[in-house]
Write a structure and sequence with these properties.
four-stranded antiparallel sheet; alpha+beta; 698 residues; elongated
Length: 698
């Protein structure tokens, strides 16, 4: 009687646990919800949100914000007619500029027009302090100016300048949120339907991923309020990608293992407990490597990179918590019927089919050294393509579709070849303003310079170089100014691009070793070996090089991208190493399980590939597809990042993980586990008791 009561009580508790977890999650979402909705309010895409923290251009931008009137919105009205401007065109331009002057308070009053030597273009520099540092008011000012300055009678009118470019950039970032989320959800949904072949099952991990994304938004808002973490359109978009990509990967691994256990256990609760015990360590280690890799970005000096670290980590950890708690609870509550029509029956055995991965494993097992050498040569050859990557990305080339500000910039560069069209901002101590101005005017490459606002102990000097923006001549001028002006700061758009390149190079030297060390330590702790972790790290680094090489073959020749984002190398390295090691963990962890159970090295490697190959392939396809969504966005830096990571994940999934790591493991045999216990030949007595040895190891 007591045994029956105990069994009944235990069964009741097991039934209550999933419902308790579900109730806890409902409470968490109710608590986090109000904060998640506020994330958009703290998202900013100002220049200082992306610039290096310690660079001249960042300090100059922050001081400019404190000057009287706040941040200046600078624009350039560009009037152009291919055949030459007529008197009527000039009258139209003057009338529009006069109307803008009446509507808004411009610095220096009505601007003077500057006619190009060929008579085709008339340029009016316009600046205002009306909006200050308020982005919404700045955008309204630019929109108001564009409403007045419109094409008329074949006369083309474009509004450019730093203020207009900031507005156009902000519009692109604002457009990322909705389309990025909807496209990601649609892509993941289609892939899950194809993978699960069930009308219901695909919806469960997708809904859980959506809840995890909502939770990550609330946590990200909290980090911003407590620690001042930078939240930009780029970092929040990548956070969403990671939640759905990594979260779906964890779900695929868990559901696959759960399906196996349902054939061994009658009750779904017991099957889920066994599934969590089986794949939990691999999933925890997987998320740990991604989080550790992303947190290494905190050592970066570039604001955009440093801010992406915490937000990406939040996304991965929220996905982990949701997929390891909420997903199991829902699956247990729903029961076996969630797998309909392919329901795993208790006591049944799955149909034995010769899978693609069995065939791939067999080929790798027969000639491991040949396969390994061929793969290494292929990856090396692909990596050579990185030599063809286009040069640094210029500001005007950073949009997939050119906005109006870029069109204006290109027109000015063509019509005024010997004159800079955007200012170099020099911020100097107020007491040395006249001395600094004289030094600036005497610097080679400077066309003109005038004092601007003064306040808070600083004076602003607007400098125009003789060379075109972001040309070699202007770059030399900026470097000369920085050499000559000690104690002053040189900023502006072109100076910012220089600082971005320099800082990315510095960050790469610091962050890359940190990522490699942190990932290695986690792998050593999980696999209890030195050789296996080193093998996985070398493999993902090779994948990164090959992916950049493919980018070099595609970006300019096929996609027409005229530059490479300075941060592409670092960010793609962090993501590919952290995410790529995931699949290595899934494979090697299962290989270790098989070895602990007494399997010979070759059999352990091939069994691990056969049992995890389908899951890894599915997970790789989902993760690659989610990052590929970025290639449909309007910014070249996101297109390039999404392309390289998607290609890298596919290479890692279908070449490196299936062929090269398996071949290396077969070739190394027990040495792959050196210096751990598994690297030694087992005693004859232990050969007869593999299960006992597995239990002791666990």
């Amino acid at each position: 009687m007591r045994a029956a009561e105990t069994t009944t009580t235990r069964t009741g508790r097991r039934r209550a646990v999933p419902w308790a977890v579900l109730g806890l999650w409902i409470a968490v979402i109710a608590l986090v919800g109000p904060f998640a909705a506020k994330l958009a309010d703290v998202q900013h895409d100002k220049v200082t949100d992306y610039l290096p923290a310690s660079a001249d251009s960042t300090r100059a931008a922050k001081i400019e914000d404190r000057l009287p009137g706040g941040e200046t919105t600078e624009m350039v009205l560009v009037y152009h007619r291919d055949g030459g401007l007529s008197a009527a065109d000039r009258k139209t331009a003057a009338g529009q500029v006069a109307e803008i002057t009446r509507q808004h308070e411009l610095i220096g009053g009505a601007p003077e027009g500057i006619l190009s030597e060929d008579g085709t273009t008339l340029m009016y520099p316009v600046a205002s302090n009306e909006p200050g540092a308020n982005e919404a008011q700045r955008d309204k000012l630019v929109d108001d100016v564009r409403e007045v300055a419109r094409d008329e009678g074949g006369l083309s009118v474009d509004v450019g300048g730093t203020g207009a470019l900031a507005t156009d950039s902000g519009a692109v970032y604002d457009s990322l949120g909705g389309p990025l989320l909807y496209t990601t959800v649609a892509v993941v949904a289609v892939l899950l339907i194809l993978i699960y072949r069930s009308p219901v099952l695909w919806l469960v991990p997708l809904v859980v991923a959506g809840i995890a994304d909502y939770m990550s938004m609330g946590v990200a808002y909290g980090l911003n309020q407590i620690f001042g973490t930078t939240v930009s359109g780029q970092s929040s978009g990548v956070m969403t990608i990671l939640v759905f990509g990594a979260g779906t990967d964890y779900a695929l691994l868990l559901v696959s293992r759960y399906r196996e256990e349902l054939r061994r256990f009658e009750r779904p609760y017991e099957a889920m407990v066994a599934a969590l015990r089986g794949c939990g360590p691999a999933v925890l280690a997987s998320s740990g490597t991604v989080a550790a890799g992303l947190l290494c970005l905190l050592a970066a000096d570039l604001n955009s990179s440093r801010g992406m670290g915490p937000l990406g980590t939040v996304g991965v950890l929220c996905a982990l918590v949701a997929m390891m708690t909420l997903l199991p609870a829902i699956l247990v509550i729903v029961g076996r019927r969630v797998f309909w029509p392919l329901v795993p029956v208790f006591g049944s055995t799955p149909k034995q089919r010769r899978s693609l991965f069995s065939a791939m494993g067999s080929s790798a097992g027969r000639r491991p050294l040949t396969v390994l050498a061929s793969g290494a040569v292929l990856l090396g050859a692909l990596a050579l393509g990185s030599l063809g990557l286009p040069g640094p990305l210029k500001q005007e080339d950073s949009f997939v579709t050119k906005p109006e500000a870029v069109v204006a910039m290109e027109t000015v560069a063509k019509s005024y070849p010997g004159q800079g069209s955007q200012p170099i901002d020099v911020i100097t101590p107020q007491g040395r303003a006249d001395e600094t101005l004289a030094t600036v005017r005497g610097t080679p490459g400077v066309g003109s310079a005038e004092k601007g606002r003064t306040g808070d102990g600083w004076t602003e000097i607007s400098v125009f170089a003789k060379s075109a923006p972001q040309s070699a001549g202007e770059t030399a001028t900026i470097k000369s100014l920085r050499d000559e002006l000690k104690g002053s700061y040189v900023g502006g758009d072109s100076a910012q691009q220089i600082d971005l390149e320099v800082t990315n190079a510095r960050d790469t030297k610091i962050v890359v070793p940190l990522v490699l060390v942190s990932v290695m330590l986690i792998l050593i702790g999980l696999l209890r070996s030195l050789v296996a972790p080193l093998l996985l790290v070398v493999a993902v680094v090779a994948v990164w090089g090959a992916s950049l090489g493919i980018g070099g073959l595609v970006f300019e020749p096929l996609l027409g991208l005229k530059g490479t984002d300075p941060g592409l190398g670092l960010l793609s390295f962090v993501f590919l190493v952290a995410l790529g090691v995931d699949y290595g963990i899934f494979l090697m962890h299962r290989m270790r399980e098989e070895s602990l159970a007494g399997a010979e090295p070759t059999a352990a490697a091939l069994t691990a590939l056969r049992t995890t190959g389908g899951v890894i392939a599915s997970a790789g396809l989902v993760l690659a597809a989610t990052f590929a969504v970025l290639t449909n966005m309007g910014l070249v830096q996101l297109v390039q990042l999404g392309f390289v990571i998607a290609v890298g994940v596919l290479l890692d999934t279908f070449l490196v993980r299936t062929y090269l790591v398996t071949s290396a493991s077969v070739a190394l045999r027990r040495k792959v586990w050196w210096p751990g216990v598994l690297s030694r030949e087992p005693d004859p007595a232990e050969r007869t008791a593999p299960i006992e040895r597995l239990d002791r190891a666990i």
